[in-house]
Amino acid sequence: MLLGILLFLCCAMGVLVYETNGLITEFESFIFESSSRESTVTLTPDQQVAAFSTMIREKQSHFFSTILVALIAIMLTTLILSLRHVIRSVREEDHPAADIPDDISLPDTVPEAPDMVRSEIFEALEKMDALLEEDEPANDPDEEFTADFEFIDDEDEGDSGVLADSYNKMVEALQRTNELEKELSSQLADANARLETEVSERKRAEKEIRHLSRQLISGTEEAQKKLAQDLHDEFGQTLAALHMGVEALWNSIPEEMTGQRDRITALIGLIEELGDKIRSISSDLRPDLLDDLGLIPTLDWYCREFTEKYPRISVDFQSVGFKKRISPEIELILYRIVQESLNNVMKYAKARSVEVMLTYSYPKVILMVRDDGTGFDPGKRTGGIGLIGMRERAVSVNGTVDIRSEKGKGTTIRGELPVS
């Protein structure tokens, strides 16, 4: 239908241009004849208009006749093409190719390459179209179209055998594609299910590990706190009583017994040294300042004590942004990280100076410990118990600890923990 409309418009434009040119030519000839007759016959203006009108009506009649003939021809052409399309559609609907014969064998295996399957399908369809066009009979459009098509086995010869072979290949290829699609869909669904299960199990395991690690750290800290209190209370009192008794014994000995008094004086020195060690152990286990005064005074005291104990190492402690105390659990973890970092500096780093910077930046607390020691290669050293303990403590409260080091350039420990 669209083709007929286009043809009609083209013909109409052509006829219009042709008739317009003819009209102009007639008008020019009419003017020329009128001017040539002026010398013999004189026409009035009304007669000239009437003559020109008669000529235009003749041209209009000729133009509409031509348009009518072109329209009839286009309609006939469109009708013939439509009938041909209808006949071809009827042939395709009545074609027995839609019925799959029982003797067609399907493949047992799935093709490895989907592109090969698509190429086989297209090749089979091209062969079938070519054979249908070659075998198309020249029937009368007015006669009813009937076609009987039977599938031929692969042993038959001729075009029908080729057609059956092409159809078999197409069915085989389609079957392979469907089987491959089903297999891949099943495999993908199974893989997604396994992946989701693994992810959920891993998340659950990580959550349980964090919970157990937090409980273990909390239990260890409580045990250390109890042990520190016992050392301070029980042993402290016992040592104090022993010290007072030995001093009383020293006072009771006469001055002329200098040897006995010197031995008692040495014994008093050992008692005082033992008391200092017990206080040091108790402070390492759980300092009382941390519970009483908070993190900042405790770290300041600990850094000064470390410098006095190891004069060759200078420790510079700074804190920024702390206007109030944070969670006791976070305070304890930060204190343990600083404590372990300074112990590692004393044992391995051979450093001369250490910087300890603690910054409160809501919603995190950032700790940085940097030394100028020998450093180590992180790729060859996975970390000792102390480094692992730092990370476990930070992870238990959803924090992080990053350790960066390089031989000859020192070590930097950076920790980020939530405020609460």
From TrEMBL:
Q: Which residues form a coiled coil?
A: 163-222
Pfam hit, one? HisKA_3
The top EC class, named as a word, is transferase
Catalyses:
ATP + protein L-histidine = ADP + protein N-phospho-L-histidine
Q: Which GO terms describe its cellular component?
A: membrane
Q: Where is the Histidine kinase domain?
A: 230-420
Known EC number: 2.7.13.3
Give the matching SMART domains: HATPase_c
Question: Which InterPro entries does the entry link to?
Answer: HATPase_C_sf (IPR036890), HATPase_dom (IPR003594), His_kinase_dom (IPR005467), Sensor_HK_TwoCompSys (IPR050482), Sig_transdc_His_kin_sub3_dim/P (IPR011712)
GO terms, molecular function? ATP binding; phosphorelay sensor kinase activity; protein dimerization activity
Q: Which residues cross the membrane?
A: 63-83
Keywords for the protein's UniProt record, in alphabetical order: ATP-binding, Coiled coil, Kinase, Membrane, Nucleotide-binding, Phosphoprotein, Transferase, Transmembrane, Transmembrane helix, Two-component regulatory system
Q: What is this protein called?
A: histidine kinase
The organism encoding this protein is Desulfonema ishimotonii
